[in-house]
Amino acid sequence: MVESHSFKPEEIRNLVLLGHAAVGKTTLAEAIALRCGVITRMGSVQEANTISDFEPEARLHKHSTNSVLLFAHHQGCQMNLIDTPGYPDFVGQALAALPAVETALIVVNAQQGIEFNTRRLYHAAGEMGLARMIVINKIDQPGDLPGLVEQLKGSFGPELHCINLPCRNATDIIDCFDHEAGEADFGDVREIHREMVESVVEVDDREMEKYLSGEKIDLEELRRYFIRAMNAGHVVPILFTSARTQAGVDDLLHILAADIPSPATGRPKRFYRGRVANTGESRPVVEFAADTEAPLLAHVFKTTSDPYVGKLCMLRIVRGKLDPTTAFVYGAEKKSHRAGHILKVQGREHPETPVAYAGDIVAVAKLEDLRVDQIIHAPAVDDDLHPLPPRYPTPMFSMAVVPKSRGDEVKISSALHKLTEEDPTFCVSHDPQTHELIIHGLGDLHLRVMLEKMKSRFNLEVVARPPRIAYRETITARAEGHYRHKKQTGGAGQFGEVFLRIEPLERGQGFEFVNEVFGGAIPSQYISSVEKGIHDAIEQGPIGGYPVQDIRVIITDGKSHPVDSKDIAFRIAGKYAFRDAMMKARPILLEPIVSLEVAVPEAHLGAVTSDLNGKRGRITGADLLPGAAAAVRATAPLSELTQYDSQLRSATGGQGSFVMEFAYYDMVPAVLQAKIAAQYKPPVEE
Q1: Each residue of 137-174: pLDDT tens digit?
Q2: Where in the chain are the domains?
Q3: At residue 460, what are phi and psi to the nearest 5 degrees?
């Protein structure tokens, strides 16, 4: 195990390994750890003995199911490395790591090429302003490397440049920074060097003039401008490795130490200032450089529950420094905290470090109230800051869960809450209509792994089943409604009368309340009571008891009584006046439509598109991918896809994968609507 030391910003390199499943990210992390002396023998994913895949779920499934932190030292630099899962079901873990680093290494399988998650993560890293590198791995196996390079450039743009090349039948690597390096297995090293230099100098007018005038640019200058070009997204280098044979790993390490941004030279970290407002106004964005002398500012980008040390919170130190005695605050609290121990993370190990400076990635333990995306800062600095989060996909795959053992309800809720803190694409809800406890994720595998974690960590088991679909109701015509509530039980009674009109809104517009009452027909203090009654009514529509949306309600008239009118009377009158109008406005049922991208072997393309058509899906596009694969884009009703994960894997021999995101609500076919309405039993009113 490498001992932990403290490093300054210019000595730190923060990296995230991204890419599709089975491209060799974990093996590459293992090879880096070996070459840097962290381990003395490489582990294997299949043997479940790598640094990264230490959790029971990763060992069981033989692939990463969580992002894992590692660190290594090379050429005087500390490399903080985050190894992320490649299955689309776990993309939230990969996206959550982006704010913590300066550089994304997108790993590509030399045989399979640009796979499903490759495109998504490449663009996500660019949106977060990270420097990007393409690492073509598994070059020791047969494949068309020149063709793959051209496909990468065709997909991601001319800013991609090879900065090294395989030689001697992919057993070694040539550094293209040196135009005299020798003969590569393919490509002209001098020509590639020239193209790289021309792209790099374009970021600086002075350097461009020097180059065009024939003045030579020395290697140190070239590397310095190369980093600037990477920061600007103007250059995306392509490198070649075989993690299994370690070919190219030493060259990769040298480039990571010499040629990628450090926290000192990378783009400053950006944050929103101020709370989220409903005004539609954009919040100001502020940037912070990695200044070790500034007051402490750090960002919690990941949490996990460790069976030995409890809750672990991973921090990116943005500025200042953190040691065991440093006082800090977080959230709305004014209470000062101290970490007690500053930890580095090496897979399952957590060695202590004396101090962490700006730019470093460390962990603190047992701060139970600290959560993902919170900012911790020095007490004297009142910075109302919030991170710029990545765009996470909406978790659309759901299961209803019930405990296997009676009395475990509270324990299960607590365990699920802890798991939601660890994964931004896993959430839990309670359906008030069905009283179901529902877990939501990105796919069947995602949810199965979360339930496995609940069993292994908390010794809790549940029975999972498909939940009811989250239908909605709306109207297709204008209508008027009226209700008079009059109740006399001796003494003061209840009286309220409401006239209203309802109108359909555009899909996705939600709910709008308008008061057009004149002359005090309904006293102003009761208008809010009418609105509350309408909100009561829209929770359960008349067709299937689902929430009502995309509707405007206009209160037009009413009557009151000087003695008997009360809040409750107008609340009841508003509720039943709305129901009266709703039944006249040609109500319809809406269903959630999701957008899908399905990656399959090309041989299964026809069967997959036919199957989607049979599920009321609409094919919106298809792309042929390297490696005889295809990506199909489509939209389809969520109700047709509750078992799609297992159906797709079965139809493609386990080779198909997909992601889906909520797109919009659309009308349910009349036959299906009639079936759902026939099954609905309205609740009995008291």
Answers
A1: 999 998 899 999 999 998 898 899 999 999 999 889 99
A2: 9-258, 270-387, 402-468, 473-585, 589-673
A3: -125, 135
